[in-house]
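Worked example 3. Consider a protein that binds 2'-monophosphoadenosine-5'-diphosphate.
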Amino acid sequence: MSDFARCAVLGHPVAHSLSPRIHGEFAHELGITLQYEKVDVEPQDLSSWIESFFTGGGTGLNITLPHKHAAAALATRSSNAVVQAGAANVLSHGADGVIEADNFDGVALIRDLTERYRLDLRGHDTLLLGAGGAGRAAAFALFDAGVRSLTIVNRSSAAADALADALGQPGRVHNRYWNDLGSLGVFDLVINATSAGVLGKQLGLPFGLLTPRATCYDLCYGYAASEFLGWAKASSARYAYDGLGMLVEGSAQAFECWFGKHPDTEPVFTELRVEFPLPG
Ligand code: ATR
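Given these inputs, the predicted complex is written out as structure tokens:
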């Protein structure tokens, strides 16, 4: 048994990942000796890599694009959040030796919105852009946090339909076509959960979607969030935030899952905010 814990983030590509740095700072804060790697794994090698990592005594893995759906399928045990999202972003070695999957996107989003930005989500008419893994996680969490209504718009309508069905409660959940965005009315909260920004694609959103008190939130940060946040500013959003805080909160949740201690997220967030300022 080694005297340090081993963790890693798996993605393809993964060079941009801030996870080693965030977890390194958490480990330092809590006095845990941690070796945290960043590993670029091709999809066909994912399963064998994960298996040998855990057989070799690894403690935990963060999973990023494009492996989140495959990671959910690989695990022996999955949390409710994984089942809801159909995607996992954290894998751990269960006490009985099996691989356990979790997804902290939803809890991290709500913590960032309500604790860091002090937003009371109750009564918010919400527009969710995107119904992939991140969108699904966000939808269930927003719903649990008490938003008044959730309108889901996805490029392919089948994914929006499936998410609306899974959420149930047709009185509070509506799914609409992307092409109808200009005629949907106004919203208090608009969440961008698409991966368009990461892929370098434009969303081309229409104006006139926001109430005067509206908050806009992109689950991404940095360049990937810039088009959406620029649109939010031009639409006179009251607040426009990126997902940097969500990344840090989700990382803290993963850290607690592996080590049983919840780190203070504020020092890392403050440091990263200097490097990744909000536009404007
Ligand atoms: P993630 O884990 O980031 O959610 P995902 O499950 O692959 O990744 O989902 C990506 C989401 O971004 C989907 O909602 C996708 O829409 P489709 O279901 O139609 O593919 C959305 N998306 C990706 N590129 C987009 C674009 N250029 N415009 C609008 N939506 C886009």
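Take a moment to read the result before moving on. The pocket of 2'-monophosphoadenosine-5'-diphosphate is lined by residues 68, 87, 130-135, 154-156, 159, 194-196, 199, 201, 203 (CB under 6 Å). Residues 1 and 133 are 36 Å apart (CA to CA).
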